[in-house]
Amino acid sequence: MNFYTRIANKRDQIVEIDTPVSEDKVDLRQEDYEKMSRKAFNKKHRLFLTREQFTPVKLKYKDKTYPLQLNHCNNPFCRWFGENQSEISRLSTRGRKRYKYRIDGDWEKEDRGRMIICNNDPNVPGAYGNCATRPVSNWSAAEEIKRLVTINTPVDIEPEYKYHKDSCNKPHTNPFDNPEDFQKYGKSKYNSQRLRCKECYKITTLMPEREKAFTYHQQRSEIVPTLASMLINRVPVKRACEILNISSQTYYDKLEYVYLRCLEFLSKFETNPLSDKFFDKLWINTDMFIYYLNNSRHKLKGNKRRNRVTKESFKRMETNLIVSGDIHSGYVLRADLAYDWDATREKLLADTKKYKCDHMEESERKNARLEHSYFPQPPTKFDKENLSNIDEEIEKYKQEKKNFDTRFDYVSGLHVSPRYTAIAHFWLLKNLLNVKDWFFINDDDGSLKNSIFRVFKDEIKNGYANYFLCQVDHDKQLSQALKEHQESKIELKNWRDECGLSKKLSIWQIAQDYLEHQLEHHNFFEEFLDDDGNSRIVRAGNPVEHPLASPDAGYRTIDVLTDLSGLNNKQLAKLLMQVNSRVTDNFIQELRRRVSMLERPLLTARAHRKSYIYSNYNPKYAQYLATILRTYYNFCDAKKDRKGNLTTPAMRIGIADKVFDWNDILYFK
Fold this sequence. Notes:
By secondary structure, this protein is of the alpha+beta class. The chain contains 18 helices and 28 strands.
């Protein structure tokens, strides 16, 4: 990369979203807002979830246009799984069309939210009713994809030069198109070229190229490698400032610089190689890392008239980081924070005023992904058909506005619903990687599970993606896990001797043979007969215990969430043996132990409550630190393989041929 870069922002339009609400529809919403109740307004103006069709949102990324439609049945064993809304038959009683799905529930009531319900069709075997799926906003999911792309993309700085004085006779010439009108005039202290106009003698200093001046606009550049090492070695902010003799502002400026260099490094050594590589099979383990923000108020926001956030509501500061990695190489593919630090009151107010989001259900809102999806608005006289309840609506509005204002008195930005971040997370993985067969492993997290079913619906339907549950007892002591590991090896060897198998078999092969033997009497799926006599395969909800306990987690149970009934026991046992959650467990443990801002809370001196003193105030830096550690973890943190060679996850996945260090990341050309 020859030029200096900066972190992209929303003005760069790296991802372009085709706004689904045209200006004519915006004007119509403005007219109807004061004339209709919420239900009537929502029914008339909803675009994405109607009885006849579910409308996608179009987004443009890397010169390609993608339709994003995420609302469909999420049950892989249902005939309608992944299918878009369409007509299936006509009822003779009323003469009305019948569709695959119906929309049920009251969107104004939290305990009875909108749900997509599958309709039964006697003419289609396997299409059974009562599959309930919670809808999402395609528009907001596209906005989350745009956010993740933006914060992870470096863009070139394009400087603006003034080559001439106002009185110059050749004001439109430049040294690139008209080199004969300029002469070289030495170099600056940053080794950048200086040019002088031959007509007006104005001197212009060009921005140096990256390989000629790494320290351009960088004071105290000599501390950057040391600071980078401190960032991932649990050195608190204050201690790092004392050691390096810098201010806190310099610390965070340098942190952002290290993050930017990591993005540039990843764009060359990760994004391009992974996009060119083809994987016949890829096992992806995904998990969610949870930490708590340091709940601090902004200055001048602590007056007595405002309620402070209490300890009971502190969980609203719970922040999620979604991590995915390859289980065989240990390579961490992505780590995305579910927090939008650019969300402001002003942006929410502008969107609410323009699109009238407060009168639309969640699946129609632009900001449905945020914890506050709209700016609270005073109720209109038509918000309730019974006008006697208008006082109740006003009181509800005041409380909602109070909670909204209190939230913005604290940490800047807003939390993002994990399911939207997970959707964007998996969509970007799918867009980056060329994979024939996908295998996903998770610990039964609903947000991650439903997101995978939405994004990889076509692959799951065609048998190119499968989903496994891997659950362990997290309360188990390490000593107990190690004991279970040793006992499982003894039990497997005893079983080998009883069956008369060869003693040359490895413990892994013995465990696979034992699991194959178990599957002869174990069923993950069962056959179900509906009222019309049609049979279908459904999930039995019957997990199996992995025969070889791991030394760090002990025994784990495994279940299958997609249809693998076509495999024989040997093929299925071979797949189940590979199911583990080691890659995300290892990386999350590294985050906890290496990054001071993300470590576990400390117990106070009296040990009666937890202290979050090291938690960061700005979630932006949590994303920066996760990316910095991910870069180091994948390319620099070498471990010995079975042959005794030092290898990194990047080497094992096949995109690197050496062990990198901080100098390679910070000063690569």
